[in-house]
């Protein structure tokens, strides 16, 4: 574990985002060509395409996990949550990387659990904290987004504990902070509202 690793982003989400953006760009190019050669009515289709581009950014590109010596930050669609290390009591991977605190669980969209077509690259030999009798929960295995992220985050957490950088006895008293992405929510609502008449006029 190197000292300069301070964040995690899902490769799966990144590939999906790039692929969808290519599709949106191709659609916008086609609409622009049709608008220039036939009728400008086709330009209405740019509004739902803009909505799609914003949603791709928010749902797949934006999510990430960051950390420093004080807290772990979960950047999710439409909201960011900062959880002090003092509150962390466990790190789970059942549905996604999840930071467990005494009061609640904070899930990360940046590290979803493996799906039906996502297999750990190491199979039964994958490393992970949930391995029992040679069998490992798929969501905790290396080679999956949730497993990789959990392995990294646990290493950071354990390192801070071993170096005594996490004050004890504050798990129940400290508070996580959540910041809603109000600007992007407003833009999404605006584009969604404009999409209905755009589709009717297309």
Unreliable stretches covering 5 or more consecutive residues: 116-135
Based on Cα principal axes, name the global outline. Answer: elongated
Evaluate the radius of gyration.
Answer: 21 Å
Distance between the termini: 53 Å
Structure description:
- By secondary structure, the protein is of the alpha+beta class.
- It is built from 4 helices and 8 strands; from the N terminus they run βααββββββαβα.
- It has helices spanning 11-37, 46-61, 145-162, 182-201; strands at residues 7-8, 64-67, 71-76, 79-84, 90-92, 96-100, 105-112, 177-180.
- The strands form 2 sheets. The chain has a 5-stranded antiparallel sheet. It has a 3-stranded antiparallel sheet with strand order 5-6-7, with helices on one face.
- Strand 2 (64-67) and strand 3 (71-76) form a beta hairpin.
- Helix 1 (11-37) runs antiparallel to helix 2 and helix 2 packs antiparallel against helix 4.
SSE arrangement:
Layout: E1 7-8, H1 11-37, H2 46-61, E2 64-67, E3 71-76, E4 79-84, E5 90-92, E6 96-100, E7 105-112, H3 145-162, E8 177-180, H4 182-201
Helix pairs in contact: 1-2, 2-4
What distinguishing features does this structure have?
single chain; 202 residues; alpha+beta; 2 domains; five-stranded antiparallel sheet; three-stranded antiparallel sheet; elongated; transmembrane helix; PH domain-containing protein; membrane; transmembrane
Task: Give me a quick take on this structure.
The protein is α+β, with helices and mostly antiparallel strands and 202 residues long. It folds into 2 domains: 10-61 and 183-201, no CATH class; 64-180, no CATH class.
């Amino acid at each position: 574990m190197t000292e300069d690793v301070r964040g995690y982003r899902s490769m799966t989400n990144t590939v999906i985002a790039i692929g969808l953006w290519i599709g949106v760009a191709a659609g916008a190019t086609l609409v622009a060509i049709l608008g220039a050669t036939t009728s400008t009515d086709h330009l209405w289709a740019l509004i739902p395409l803009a909505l799609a581009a914003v949603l791709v950014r928010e749902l797949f590109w934006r999510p990430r996990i960051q950390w420093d010596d004080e807290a772990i930050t979960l950047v999710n669609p439409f909201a960011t949550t900062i959880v002090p290390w003092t509150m962390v009591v466990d790190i789970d991977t059942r549905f996604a990387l999840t930071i467990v605190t005494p009061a609640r669980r904070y899930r990360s969209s940046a590290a979803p659990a493996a799906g039906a077509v996502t297999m750990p690259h190491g199979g039964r030999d994958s490393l992970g904290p949930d391995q029992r009798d040679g069998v490992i929960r798929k969501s905790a295995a290396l080679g999956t987004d949730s497993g990789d992220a959990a392995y990294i985050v646990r290493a950071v957490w354990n390192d801070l504990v071993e170096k005594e950088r996490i004050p004890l006895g504050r798990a129940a008293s400290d508070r996580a902070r959540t910041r809603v992405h109000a600007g992007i929510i407003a833009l999404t609502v605006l584009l969604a509202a404009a999409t209905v008449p755009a589709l009717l006029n297309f």
